[in-house]
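Slide 14.
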Amino acid sequence: MEWLITAAGAVLVLVGLRDVFHTLWHPTGRGGLSTAMMTAVWRSTRRFGPRGTIAALSGPLSVIMVILMWTLLVVAGWTLVYWPHMPDSFSYAPGLDPAERADLVDGLYLSLVMVATLGLGDITPTDAWLRLAAPFEALIGFALLTAAVSWISQVYPALTRRRLLALRLASLRAAGGLPSPPRTAATAVLLQQLADAVNHVRLDLDQHAETYYFHDGEPDASLAAMAGYAAGLAVQGQRSREAAVRMSAAMLGRSLEGLAKSLGPFLRRDGDAWEIFAAYAADHGHAPQAGG
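Slide 15: predicted structure.
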């Protein structure tokens, strides 16, 4: 029975580490547990309205909750590893009676101490395998801290690129949009640049799925609001007489279709880009901005 509990603890740790890997380092950027947690936080905050202070907290809160979930999985798993072998496989500091230290609380205490890399030394393993396992938990704890800091540092540059694209589209809309009919070489360059920016945003979303759950506030800074306008620009550009403009507009259209495909799983729906972008805007509490 002792080894069954220990094995269950090891499985729990592996489940947590697998989710960390799939969230932070796998190309899809979507761990099953982390995605479920972020979706739950997103839906919970939307009950208070799709916009406002609570909605603005949904992204940071979802990241915090995922990090806490990973930590709890590791701590709980190692608690189950230690607990069945206490007190016989551990030595205790003077003043601690081993006969009174065989409960789950001590296993949890030791797990917390090791994952936090505190190394207090009042309870130490004596069995050879535990003497090797305990430092491994400390390494996992250090890796979790490093991963959390790295994750946060990667999220905000991706959000900045998304917001810059939205602001550029909003500025173009305020300036009157593309000339009608769009003929100049400068228009082709502009559409090409927009296509490149959309591709960057799509890659950010594919690799950092958590960015979807960050609310961008005002419509001008929200790609959820401005994506429909970008789709309108692609349609308008394809009506040009200039081949270069039509080609750039077609590339923008393809980039937007790819972005819509990446957004589909978050919205749990299929359809053309226009439908996806309308649902995207509604999910973030915005009215889609028309264009074209």
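Speaker note: Residues 2-147 form one domain.
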